[in-house]
Design a protein that fits this description.
Layout (H helix, E strand, L loop, with lengths): L3 E3 L2 E3 L1 H13 L5 E7 L1 H4 L5 H12 L5 E6 L4 H8 L15 H19 L2
Parallel strand pairs: 3-4
Antiparallel strand pairs: 1-2
C-alpha cells in the first residue's frame, strides 16, 4: 500500500506505521511532545488515530504533560477533532524570537513543577 498523499507529498504506509508505534510508546513518558499535526491529521488520516488514543489517555491523567505542535491553518479543526481545550497556547513562527523561546521554556518549567510538587 502506498500510504497517504497530501499535496505533492506522499507518506509511505511503513513510515506511518512506525510513527504510530512511536506515538503510542510515548505513553511510557510523563512528557509527550508531538511535532507536527498538519493537513493529514486534520482529515483524520496520517498519525491521527494514535495521536487521538494518546490524547484520550493524557486527558484522564494528572501525571502527564502533552505538547502538540499544530499548523496554524488547521489548528481549530484538529482541536475540535481531538475534543481538547488547550491549557495554554503559544504561537511560534518559523524563526521565533529569543523572547518567544524564553516564554515557551518558562511555560514548560511551570507545568513540569506540577510533577515535582503535586
Amino acid at each position: 500500500m502506498i500510504g497517504e498523499k497530501i499535496g505533492k507529498f506522499v507518506f509511505s504506509q511503513k513510515s506511518l506505521d512506525f510513527g504510530n508505534r512511536v506515538i503510542r510508546r510515548s505513553l511510557l513518558s510523563n512528557v509527550i511532545i508531538i511535532d507536527e499535526l498538519g493537513l493529514l491529521e486534520s482529515k483524520g488520516k496520517g498519525l491521527y488515530t494514535s495521536i487521538h488514543e494518546v490524547v484520550e489517555i493524557v486527558k484522564k491523567s494528572d501525571k502527564k504533560l502533552m505538547i502538540l505542535c499544530i499548523r496554524e491553518d488547521v489548528k481549530s479543526k484538529i482541536l475540535n477533532l481531538l475534543a481538547i481545550v488547550p491549557k495554554g497556547t503559544l504561537e511560534i513562527k518559523k524563526y521565533p524570537s529569543k523572547q518567544t523561546l524564553e516564554k515557551f521554556c518558562k511555560s514548560i518549567e511551570e507545568h513540569l513543577k506540577l510533577f515535582v510538587n503535586p
